[in-house]
Structure of Nickel ABC transporter, nickel/metallophore periplasmic binding protein:
Amino acid sequence: MLRRSMLHAMGGAAALAAMTPAAAQATRRRLTFSWPSNAGPLHPHLYSPNQMYAQSMLYEPLVRYAEGGRIVPALATAWEMEEDGRAWRFTLRQGVSFSDGTPFDAAAVVANVDAVLRNRARHAWLELVNQIEGAEAIDPGTVRLRLQGPYYPALLELSLPRPLRFASPAVLRADGGIAAPVGTGPWVLAETARGQHDLFRRNDGYWGEKPVLEEVLVRVLGDSNARALALESGEIDLAYGTDQLDADTFRRFAADRRFTTAISPPIGTRLLALNSALAPTDDPAVRQAIAQGIDRAALVRHILLDTEPAAGTLFATNFPYTDLGLQAPGFDRAAAAARLEAAGWTLPAGGRVRRRDGRDLALDLCFIGADALQKAIGEAVQGDLARIGIAARLVGEDASTYYGRQRSGDFGMIFNDTWGAPYDPHAFLASMRAPSHADYQAQRGLPMKAEIDRRIGAVLAITDHARRAEEYRWLLTTLHEQAVYVPVSFFTNKLVHRPSLGRVPFGDTRTDIPFARIGRG
């Protein structure tokens, strides 16, 4: 069993119990965390198996996303959009070096942007990469990013955990790889043992406020039960994330006075997408009845155990442009049934499934078979819909087949999540135009689909805030009224730790785990 060095120094758990949280934190050298897999090679520009929480520990962006969609300085201290909206000019932070001693300057920014653009096809999902024409160093402390045209989310997408973060030019290879993971962030990767752990050490040359902790050891633990046992025994100090612990286990820790627990504000939305191009959900009355006939409050209470709030809109209101006063239809089985009756979907004498024109009101509800939470939610939804005369057939399949259905549109209802900050709402909406996405397939049958796609493209190029807000109002209101989505709940991050760890804040995005701020006042 891994033992905390401060317990060894002070003679064990009894000594720790006698310490105040502040005193315990002051002597803490290492925090032990857990994750389902190793951190990966930690290339700042690439994706799986690189883990985003770890990439954010080593690599920094020009700007950061803060609560509510604010953009704040990081490696850039100031920025301005040029008049035509086709370029951004950044003033770089002075006195910053990579952990190998290489200076961070405009040449380093250009080298990293060029490396991303050489692999542009790999990053085509991110519209900013498609928009970038190039980067140029005006002087060592100033860099200019040229775009094909105005693109208002440029700063939001520069704040993402990947791909536009910066490795030391000394480690960038001509083949697109890196010789070693070297960034400007508060941590350096000290050791990796495959299938066992990753060890991060404090970067003592960090330009900003240095972490209180000296080390973060991340043990590879593949499931919630193993993580809960490790918390109980003291083998790990912290559980943090959306699904690191199941809801029942989290509530058990919340009732245990030996532990501190907390739930973050909404960080994304758990959804069911309805196929508007496939019968019977091509009928707006069916989609609206489904939205009215699902008891979200009971689902959240009994399955998610109130660890996530019930959702009534595509996005939570703590994201930019989303606080529009939209309301989900209240749960009302009688009204849902009446809506179906009015649309010609009637119950045969003695029957349980409504029919119209000789067709049963039946659909496939698709989920990943190995995902116990999706299965439980699917069963609850199936039960609710049966009570209003809709037969939902549960189709649980392997992940590859499931994602194939999202791409092809071979579903009646299918689970789908928004991406959270800083992607919501702009990047999630932008993806709705791609036929390979479940959102495109779900919306394909809407009479205004072409207009939705046109307006999404337009809003991304609008530089005037008021005009942009009006476009978002039309887009989000239209999708809401068409009932293409059944919002289930808003994702939250959950954390569990012993009080001796001190203050553990939430990050501003779903994937940011703020190890560098743990223990600060």
Remarks:
- Residues 1-27 have pLDDT under 50 and may be disordered.
- The radius of gyration is 25 Å.
